[in-house]
Design a protein that fits this description.
With about 110 residues, the protein is mostly helical. The chain is built from 3 helices and no strands.
């Protein structure tokens, strides 16, 4: 398809932009529904819940899949695809939150 490696720059850039948005999207979803006073604490905890499973999977999933399906690495990708589908279905349960910025609550105003 591509004879010259220099022609891969555009597709590689597109993949990089898509990857950056995939990594940033969970943080954007979370940041819009957190109290601003404790944003750093919640983001740090969220980051731990992202990183620890990644380290765990990177450490052990190869051996588990080798034990379950010796000689068939395709099942590792199918397992990953099934995990993505479960995660996508789980996101349908998250209610969108529209921040009410710039509007004051009438009940809290002093008059």
């Amino acid at each position: 398809m591509f004879v010259e490696p220099s022609k891969l720059r555009l597709p590689q850039g597109g993949i990089g932009i898509a990857w950056a948005s995939i990594l940033a999207m969970p943080y954007a979803i979370l940041a819009s529904s957190l109290p601003q006073q404790k944003l750093g604490i919640y983001m740090g905890l969220f980051n731990i819940f992202i990183v620890v499973p990644q380290l765990l999977v990177a450490t052990v999933i190869g051996q588990i899949m080798l034990w379950l399906f010796p000689g068939e690495p395709l099942w590792t990708m199918l397992f990953a695809a099934a995990s993505w589908i479960i995660a996508a279905c789980s996101m349908t349960r998250v209610a969108p939150v529209v921040p009410n910025r710039g509007h004051s609550d009438v009940s809290n105003s002093v008059g």
